[in-house]
Amino acid sequence: MLEHLEEYHRPRDLHQALELLRRKRINTVPLAGGTNLALSRSPRLEAVVDLSELVLDFVGIGTTIRLGAMVRLQTMVRASEIRDIAGGVLSEAARREAAYTVRNMATVGGTVAVAESTSELLPLFLALDASLDLDGGEAIVPLAEYLTRKSTYMHRLITAVIFPNPQGMGVGTYRVARLESDEPILTAAAVVKRDGDRASLVRLAMGGIQRRPIRLLEVEGKMLAAGTIDGMLEVLPEVSKAVTHRGNLRASAEYRKEVAPVAARRALLAAWGE
Ligand SMILES: Cc1cc2nc3c(=O)[nH]c(=O)nc-3n(C[C@H](O)[C@H](O)[C@H](O)COP(=O)(O)OP(=O)(O)OC[C@H]3O[C@@H](n4cnc5c(N)ncnc54)[C@H](O)[C@@H]3O)c2cc1C
Fold it and tell me: In terms of domains, do 60 and 194 share one?
């Protein structure tokens, strides 16, 4: 593990960290919680920049919510100000992301950078319309764009995840797994703003249907045009078309196609308040 590592750095300021990460002569990557990186055997991994002294573990709650890249998943589970957001769905998604010991080390930034297909947190961030603050404010990129074109952002440092406070909106999630404690097969998250019997905003995102979690923009558009909950539910079969996952030991591609609209329906109904 990290067999080819030649350098370890723990800078105290962001500018220095960015300079180290931008070096061309030696392949240097960020080290956050290390739960994923420490297992790497890649010969290309020559130097790491430990982010732990950069004070990126801030939580800002206002009309915009800002979670620093070094916020631990367990902090998301325990911090009362995060538990208060959207009835606790964010804290619950963080809790389900990994076991307790891993959550104490794993960070928000690391989880985004790894971008597991079946993450529970990432579809929720997507449905909350999250963006990433990269390189300490040098760029703000929608999370959906980052996940779709991830290789473009390979050398950028995620400094925070930002999204509008979902106060006044319905937020719902759903997971399909063989066992309560098992890694999920599919994950879904929906955010709805209701104006009486009609939706004035719908966002839907899923994990486990493609290589990385995605936002279902076309489906969202059709749902918004439909407006009512009954109309939105009629659009759900379209979710299957977005499934490109080839299947694995947990579930086949056919199963995912069949069950994806069901998971989306349950997340949507939870967000709608039914
Ligand atoms: C026992 C065990 C169980 C696990 N279970 C799960 C699971 O159920 N679900 C799941 O999704 N994952 C799981 N993981 C994987 C891992 O815990 C997660 O992917 C974790 O969230 C990674 O976060 P980290 O802070 O530890 O990242 P690190 O391991 O430090 O880094 C991971 C990658 O992200 C990059 N990176 C880290 N921070 C940043 C940043 N701020 N900006 C840019 N790049 C960055 C690193 O360079 C590296 O390439 C598990 C790991 C272990 C050891």
Answer: no
